[in-house]
Amino acid sequence: MAGPKQTLLEQFAVLGKALSNAHRLDLLELIAQGERSVETLAEAAGLSIANASQHLQVLRRSGLVTSRKLGQQVLYRLSGDDVLSLLAALRQTAERHVAEVGRLVNGYFKEKDKMEPVTRNDLMRRMKEGLVTVLDIRPEQEFAAGHIPGSLNIPLKDLKKRLNALSPETEIVAYCRGPYCVLAYEAVAALRGQGRKALRLEDGFPEWRAAGLPVEKL
Amino acid sequence: MAGPKQTLLEQFAVLGKALSNAHRLDLLELIAQGERSVETLAEAAGLSIANASQHLQVLRRSGLVTSRKLGQQVLYRLSGDDVLSLLAALRQTAERHVAEVGRLVNGYFKEKDKMEPVTRNDLMRRMKEGLVTVLDIRPEQEFAAGHIPGSLNIPLKDLKKRLNALSPETEIVAYCRGPYCVLAYEAVAALRGQGRKALRLEDGFPEWRAAGLPVEKL
DNA sequence: TCTGTATTCAACAAATCAATTGAATAATAT
DNA sequence: ATATTATTCAATTGATTTGTTGAATACAGA
Questions:
Q1: Rounded Cα distance, A61 and A41, in Å
Q2: Domain boundaries, chain A
Q3: CATH architecture group of domain B4-79
Q4: Which of B1, B13, B21, B134 is at 20 to 30 A from B144, Cα to Cα?
Q5: How far apart are CA A165 and CA A145, in angstroms?
């Protein structure tokens, strides 16, 4: 009785179900930074290992992520860049049509950084001219898995003590995991509080890589 | 303890949850054809009225659709064209990364129509030259709510008896609800079986309208 | 006002999901 | 082999989702 249409809809629904839990969306954003093991993902997302493993298997069954075994670890990564497009579409729709999201984005996020973010191409241009210091605000591990070439990794918690290592003259552009990642917002706010000239990059590292721009690994 | 990030993820998850049920995805595609009442949506989707009403309320709470009261009916419609983009992203990701979907699309759907579908712009061009008959294969009600100007409404079930009303010379382009709507595929197959030259339009009516192309209403 | 109609609400059972716990598995190192 | 480590599986609990049924609401027309 189930025609091809019905079967297709059920498969699409499996994909929707993968996106229907906040922890899984959190894991997806972490995985988007680069391939990672179950244990480190569990820790970064604040989940027990068994629970993280189960969420990751839901994501794998949905097709959004794939996994491979390396030694005794299982590494998860995004199935492709179109997953980023799907997440972007989800965010855009939520921002436009979910009152609560619009409120948060226009309140918490926009307030922290009234200025337009720097676009990727803008940043590329300014980097070539050597006019700018690029800060990667993510944890070390994510920086190690891939970052913008020439960027300096200063995780948010270390920003205060390492601030004086930066020349006070040059402009600073900060980035982190994605469009709503709070790390870069906090960093820009902190830097401006110190009288620095600081801006935020649009989106985050996964989008930079997906745009085909150069990437460096440790 | 729930920071803004957590709240955002929970809201995104609400959107995902709306997409996590095959009946709701079915209803969404129907709503995308045009504003419709609960009763007609329930019938078209093969659901009881109470059940359809509940699914529709889930969709409304998620922000994907809105509703308004007209007389004693409640009419539901899409919140915006970005919902179509979200659905397209969902389909694309499923097609690329869910084995079962790839199998179905490359089997059932592609087989029925090996040729590339006609693009929207192509169809516009051919229509201007008067070289083509455009068939809308959807049920009357959906045709009435909006269709491609100059198209002829022949619901799939009426195709056989009304086939001879079409000039045997002109090429036929058929369309229906969307990229995986089976109606147009079946129609093209049936027409070709009768020795007609028939092609399928890419996607369906909602995408035509969202592209800003002209639309006619009864 | 009374009547019929469209939709929503409320209550229920069955199924599914989420998180925890502890055991099982698989690969590596000793 | 044995021990160690990373991950998955299985069993359990409580919460959520789904679909059904029948009642409640809201509204228009006679």
A1: 18
A2: 4-79, 112-210
A3: Orthogonal Bundle (1.10)
A4: B21
A5: 24
Residue A100: pLDDT over 90: no
Among A88-92, A168-172, B201-205, name the one with the lowest average pLDDT: A168-172
Which residues in chain A, range 62-91, keep a C-beta under 7 Å from any nucleic strand C atom? Answer: 69, 71-72
State the Cα angle at A78 between B107 and A26, rounded to 5°.
125
Listed residue (A163, A170, A173) closest to A203, CA to CA: A173
Cβ pair B12:A91 closer than 8 A = yes
Instruction: State residue A106's pLDDT score.
Output: 83
Q: Is A181 a residue of the active site?
A: no
Q: Do A97 and B89 touch (CB under 8 A)?
A: no
Residue B73 Cβ < 7 Å to strand C? yes
Q: Are strands B73-78 and B65-70 parallel, antiparallel or unpaired?
A: antiparallel
Which residues, 6 or more positions from B22, have their beta carbon under 8 angstroms from its beta carbon?
Answer: A6, A9, A10, A12, A13
- CATH superfamily for B114-210 is Rhodanese-like domain (3.40.250.10)
What average pLDDT does this structure show over A115-136?
Answer: 91
Residue-wise pLDDT tens digits, A185-199: 889 988 988 888 899
pLDDT for the residue numbered A164? 83
Give the model's confidence band at A111: pLDDT under 50 very low, under 70 low, under 90 confident, else very high.
Answer: low
pLDDT the model gives residue A1: 47
Q: What is the ipTM of this complex?
A: 0.92
B106 touches chain A (CB under 8 A): no
Query: What's the number of CA atoms in the CB half-sphere (13 Å) around residue A42?
Result: 16
Does CATH place domain A112-210 in 3.40.250.10?
Answer: yes
Task: Show the tokens assigned to B194.
Answer: 């009768």
Q: Which two tokens stand for residue B16?
A: 């995902």
Look at the block and give the residue holding tokens 């569990």.
Answer: A42
